[in-house]
Design a protein that fits this description.
Helix content is about 40%, strand content about 20%. The strands form 6 sheets. It has a 6-stranded parallel β-sheet. Strands 2-1-3-4 form a 4-stranded mixed β-sheet. It has a 3-stranded antiparallel β-sheet with strand order 13-16-17. The protein is globular.
Length: about 500
């Protein structure tokens, strides 16, 4: 078994060629193993010097490639750079890159290395660069697995994962990187560790912002956030820094998904600081509220079945077109008016789907019990586990990413927090607010227009708007940002009546 390590300067042409060749060999030859270690340009000279000193090698350029210790080589042995590596692969496996450096051709009949069966493969899709901030946390730990395995962007979409967190926890990031490498995901092209936002965000395709001060019950009281006011105060500085970094090094197509709470207001801070990126590139997570609502509706429907046989039971995935309006907080509004339940087994008269409202026929459940359960679900989980609900949170991020990248199905919508300017439901401009959205492949979205909203829901939406206006005023004041002209008077009118209640509420965990 051959095991090689390829490391080099991240922007080096020859490192990229070596990485491509190594990855294609890994995919083609079952007994070939390779580990990629891309290094930031400014860190490469010291990394190279350290490795050469450690192993007694002489090498002065990028990439640096060696063969790991094994049965036939008791110590790591230097291969050299790209040219030496390509020559060795051609001699061992008769493998070469084609002229356009995009395909690997193999002929195992004449190789002198171990007998292996090769299957020619190539990237038909350019890998996405995906940055996860707060990567030492539990939500990131779960999310990184989903991204690497293909659940987040699709089973044909390669990814390069960048892990970003504070220098204090860099060791944890290296541990996560090793685990991702050990998973040997076919779609995970590379994993890199960062403590600099500028390096992690440079020309990134997707930035997933999980960084936040701990909110678990078992956290150190000196750093724990005990209420929503603490969450806002502690995290505004983080999101201002991330926004400024994205403004410096992001590209016009970089998409930013804000998860850490208060997610809608954090998205507003980041987008206000990243002025070079369009507001439509930013979204905040409300998919977790959607998934929780779907699960509760499915459980209620199952309780109504006359004979709850496993084959007939509904899951959360059976529920479509639930609307989530407003802030990700205690003012969030789940709306079943347009929801449908799929009906593969004919439980509702053989129709393919049925109205959830008609199937439930329980006004008290839909307007009171369900709303309260979904709004407090995160806190309930924290009370039981004494930590944030990382598994369901990361699954919701994964669902959000999948729809953002691949689009929504025809006739269906999903929910996410988006910038409110020119929305069709009269929500004031200058906020991030959860709406039902229809998304085209590639991330172009629009708020689903024309949905009927009853008077009760309109009243609840106003409460959520007032909360978001108060949060905006507090966050912009903390960050030293200027309020948009249209938001100044709104904040003055509503702040006295609402800010104390809004800011003293308990934090809504993911």
């Amino acid at each position: 078994m051959a095991f090689f390590v390829i490391t080099g300067r991240q922007n080096c042409e020859f490192y990229n060629k070596a990485e491509l060749l190594g990855d294609q060999l890994r995919r083609s030859l079952p007994a070939f193993h390779v580990e990629f270690r891309p290094i930031e340009p400014e860190e490469w000279p010291s990394t190279l010097a350290t490795l050469c000193q450690q192993y007694g090698w002489q090498h002065s350029s990028s990439p640096l490639i060696w063969r790991q210790a094994g049965e036939d080589n008791p110590t790591p042995s230097l291969v050299g750079g790209y040219t030496e590596f390509a020559t060795m692969m051609a001699r061992w496996y008769n493998v070469n890159l084609s002229a356009d450096d995009q395909h690997v051709t193999t002929n195992t009949a004449a190789h002198t290395g171990p007998t292996l069966r090769a299957i020619p493969m190539s990237y038909s899709v350019k890998p996405l660069s995906v940055c996860i901030t707060g990567a030492a946390g539990q939500t990131a730990y779960n999310l990184a697995f989903s991204i690497g395995s293909g659940d987040a962007f699709g089973k044909n979409q390669p990814v390069s994962i960048r892990l970003l967190d504070l220098p204090l926890v860099t060791s944890k990031l290296h541990g996560l990187m090793m685990e991702l490498e050990d998973c040997a995901f076919p779609l995970c092209k590379s994993v890199s560790v960062h403590s600099s936002p500028d390096a992690a965000f440079k020309n990134v395709d997707y930035a997933i912002l999980l960084s936040a001060i701990p909110r678990t019950l078992g956290a150190d009281p000196l750093v724990r956030c005990n209420n929503r006011r603490d969450v806002l105060r502690a995290n505004t500085a983080i999101f201002k820094e991330h926004g400024l970094a994205l403004d410096r090094v992001g590209k016009p197509t970089t998409k930013v998904i804000v998860v850490a709470n208060p997610s809608a207001t954090n998205a507003l801070i980041v987008s206000a600081c990243a002025k070079s990126l369009p507001k439509t590139n930013f979204s905040s997570l409300s998919r977790l509220d959607q998934n929780r609502t779907c699960a509760q509706v499915a459980a209620k429907l199952n309780s109504l079945l006359p004979s709850p046989e496993p084959a007939l039971l509904f899951s959360g995935r059976s529920i479509r077109n639930i609307a989530i309006w407003g802030n990700h907080s205690d003012t969030m509004v789940p709306d079943l008016t347009h929801a449908r339940v799929t009906d593969a087994d004919g439980a509702y008269g053989g129709q393919h789907s049925a109205s959830v409202v008609a199937a439930l026929h329980d006004e008290d459940f839909m307007t009171s019990e369900l709303v309260e359960t979904v709004r407090t679900r995160g806190k309930t989980i924290v009370a039981h586990r004494r930590m944030t609900p990382a598994m369901s949170g990361s699954k919701a991020v994964c669902d959000h990413l999948y729809n953002l990248h691949n689009g929504t199905k025809e006739g269906e919508f999903t929910n996410m927090g988006v910038y409110t300017d020119n929305n069709p439901y009269g929500v004031p401009d200058g906020l991030f607010f959860s709406f039902p959205c229809v998304i085209q492949p590639g991330g172009r979205w629009q708020v689903k227009a024309g949905l009927e909203v009853d008077e009760r829901t309109k009243h609840l939406l106003q409460t959520s708007v007032q909360e978001l206006v108060a949060e905006r005023h507090a966050a912009f004041t903390l960050c030293g940002l200027s309020l948009p002209a249209r938001g100044v008077q709104e904040s003055r009118d509503r702040r006295e009546d609402n800010q104390s209640n809004v800011m003293d509420a308990s934090p809504d965990e993911p």
